[in-house]
Every structure is written in structure tokens, then in C-alpha cells.
Amino acid sequence: METKIALRAKRRAIAQTTMAALFAALIAAGAFISIPLPFSPVPVTLQNLFALLSGLILGPLLGGAATALFLLAGALGVPVFSGAVGGFAHFFGPTGGFLLGYLFAALSAGFIAGRPRGNRRVPLLRIILAVLAGFLVVYVPGVIRLKVVLDTDWGTALAAGFIPFIIGDTLKGIAAVLIAPRLRRVAVEQMDG
């Protein structure tokens, strides 16, 4: 017969696995809200928001695992990348750096916000810093990869892969700051309950 501690640990592991899978699915679902831009190979999606939220809400390890699961599914050909496509070749295309940046976003936002535990609240300033860092680490590898693939100068790469997204990502960042604290509490309840 299993002890209460063993049962609680098993329930927690199941809840954590479920939450990671849920966020991987949310990141994938973000691909279906994809707005192509005529001047850029990078579309507007919600995937960066969901990758960021995975780290903010689940912490660096589970958030990173959720994002890695999403990337693995896409690499294996599941159509989870923007435009409902998949395949390993997309990591070498113009948006490949952004895909890698999603993992960096989940990890960095998770490390800054910390792993959710009990009733501990994360200060708002820390959430804001986590959001800013999360978006920044999406753009660094994204713009670098875009510059290399397009064989262009930095100004053109920034004009195609960063500048058009500032307003939208500011709005996504505000949404993340507003919803992350509440969703962290819900995640803790589900994983510790």
C-alpha cells in the first residue's frame, strides 16, 4: 500500500506533466493565430507569448520542458510552427532563431520569476523584468538568424524581425504581467493540491 507521501508525490508528478503538456499545446495553438507580414518572413503569432507564459507560470524547468516539447514536436514534423508547418528544416530557415528564442524565453522568464510555490507571491517588478527579458531573448537569436539567412545588413534584419513587432509584443507583455500572477496561483493549486 502506498503511503500518503508517495501518493501526493505521484499526483504532483502527474499534475506537473499535465501542465507542461498543456503549455506545449498552447504554444502550438499560438501558431494558428498567424498574421503574415508582406515585408518580412516572420509572421505575427501568439507563440512567443505562450512560450513566455510557460516560464512565468510553471517556472524555468517545467516551462522549459513545455517549450522543448513543442520544439521537439515541430522538429519531428508535427505542424505546430506558424503556418501549420513542421519539420527540422524550419530551424535553419529565417524563423529558426525565433523558435530557439522561445526556449530561451521560457527559461529566462522562469528563472527571473522563480518556481511557483505555495502562497508565495512574486513582486510585480520581478514579473515585469521577466517579461522584458523573455521577449528580448526571443529577438536576439531571431534577428541574428534572420540576418544570416537573408544575407542582409543589421538595419534590414531589425526592420524585418524586430521593429514591426514592438507594439504587439508590448501589448502581449502587458497581458502577461496582468495574468501571470493569477495563473501562477492556479498552477500551484493544481500541482500542490
Short note summarizing the structure:
The chain has 193 residues and is mainly alpha-helical. It is built from seven helices and two strands; from the N terminus they run αββαααααα.
What would your notes on this structure say?
The chain has 193 residues and is mainly alpha-helical. It has a single domain, classed as Arp2/3 complex 21 kDa subunit ARPC3. The chain has seven helices and two strands, in the order H-E-E-H-H-H-H-H-H. It has helices spanning 4-29, 47-58, 60-75, 96-113, 124-150, 154-161, 166-192; strands spanning 35-37, 40-44. The protein has a two-stranded antiparallel ribbon. Strand 1 (35-37) and strand 2 (40-44) form a beta hairpin. The longest helix has 27 residues, at 124-150. The model has no long low-confidence stretch (mean pLDDT 93).
**If helices are DSSP runs of H or I spanning 4 or more residues, what is the number of helices?**
7
- Binned, the helix content reads 55-70%
Number of separate strands: 2
Rg: 17 Å
Could you give the distance between the termini?
Answer: 21 Å
Question: How many discrete structural domains?
Answer: 1
Strand residues, percent: under 5%
CATH topology: Arp2/3 complex 21 kDa subunit ARPC3
| CATH class call | Mainly Alpha
Average predicted confidence as pLDDT: 93
As residue ranges, the low-confidence spans are none
CATH architectural name: Orthogonal Bundle
Instruction: Give the overall form.
Output: globular
The H/E string reads HEEHHHHHH
Major sheet: 2 strands, antiparallel
